[in-house]
């Protein structure tokens, strides 16, 4: 696919539906390339169709790799809040002819495989959350 072909497809999608930021579409393309490479490495170099779940996991992994603790913030900037949002973009690019699909592929395949924000934040949360200090006065340990 030529870069101008993809750029024209993204422009057409955004002209119809400006819900997602242009950067989200380019990141999605990178995530697809990342996932295809991963699939080929695990499949003796053979190319095969990438399932929605594989793409979502690849999207997540690339976001964590590229943006680290800022990954969920970046998704907020791009207005991506769920796996379904990613699926919507995939199907918009399929309609433009720059992504392919099999007859069995559906939007339902992208239905919340995982909670996007929480999944992107999880690796950076403290392992042992700090406990809130009690507001009660400590007892002296002496009873009457």
Please tell me about this protein's structure:
By secondary structure, this protein is an all-alpha fold. The protein has one domain. 53% of the residues lie in helices and 0% in strands. The chain contains 6 helices and no strands. The chain has helices at 3-16, 22-41, 52-67, 71-77, 83-95, 116-121. Helix 2 packs across helix 3 (52-67). The longest helix is centred in the N-terminal third of the chain and has 20 residues, at 22-41. The termini are far apart. 24% of the residues are buried. The model has no long low-confidence stretch (mean pLDDT 90).
Topology:
Layout: H1 3-16, H2 22-41, H3 52-67, H4 71-77, H5 83-95, H6 116-121
Helix pairs in contact: 2-3
The pLDDT mean sits at 90
| Major sheet attributes | none
C-alpha end-to-end distance: 82 Å
Oligomeric grouping of the chains: single chain
How are helices and strands ordered from N to C?
HHHHHH
> What is the overall number of helices?
6
- Residue share in β-strands: under 5%
Please state the overall shape, judged from the principal axes of the Cα atoms.
globular
Domain count: 1
Number of strands: 0
The level of helicity is: 40-55%
**Rg value:** 21 Å
What structural class results from the helix and strand content? mainly alpha
Low-confidence stretches: none
């Amino acid at each position: 696919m030529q870069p101008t072909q993809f750029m024209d497809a993204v422009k057409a999608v955004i002209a119809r539906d400006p819900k997602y930021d242009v950067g989200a579409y380019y990141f999605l393309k990178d995530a697809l390339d990342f996932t295809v490479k991963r699939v080929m490495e695990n499949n003796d170099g053979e190319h095969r169709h990438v399932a929605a779940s594989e793409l979502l996991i690849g999207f997540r992994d690339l976001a964590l790799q590229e943006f680290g603790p800022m990954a969920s913030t970046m998704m907020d900037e791009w207005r991506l809040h769920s796996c379904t949002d990613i699926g919507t973009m995939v199907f918009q690019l399929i309609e433009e002819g720059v992504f392919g699909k099999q007859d069995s592929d559906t939007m339902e395949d992208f239905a919340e495989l995982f909670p996007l924000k929480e999944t992107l934040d999880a690796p950076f949360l403290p392992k042992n959350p700090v406990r809130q200090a009690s507001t009660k006065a400590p007892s002296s340990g002496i009873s009457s």
